[in-house]
Please model this.
Amino acid sequence: MKRLTTLFTAVAAIALFAMMLLTFADIFSRKFLTNSITGAVELTELFMLVMIFFALPLASMAGEHIVFDLLDKALPRLLLRWQQTLSHALTTAIFGGAGWIVWERAQRTADYGDTTSALEIKIAPFQTLAAAMLAVTALVHLGLAWRAARGLDLPSHDETTDKEAA
Model:
């Protein structure tokens, strides 16, 4: 799991750095050489897609999504456990469904042979990558649902109070 996390982090970081470098080069070229880099916007969009979808399972593993935890300290531990299990199970279904929809879209895009307008880069591989990363994120939430159902990773009421005090 550690290697997979490292891989996802590296790919997202490289895509972010490439976006930054390309944007700098494009602005420099436009201002000082009076010529924009052809396809810079397309490449930036593709790098952004890679960065976002590789970071998505990382955010899920780290529990960094937006969380509404107003009742966590007031709920009994058993109810909190089932609430988290249901939440992760529902999130699994949503990410899995989104992955399926994007996968089908990627197949249609591949059949049509769609490419970007300036550089004519095939779009389907990027959509397939997005679908795969949505599926990975769904699997992460399935694992989190399993852990929640077993009562693992639940904060005690003391830990919740300690976080608020800090």
About this structure: The helical segments are 2-32, 40-62, 77-112, 124-149, 157-165. Confidence is low (pLDDT under 50) at residues 159-166. The chain has five helices and no strands. The CA atoms of residues 33 and 143 lie 52 Å apart.
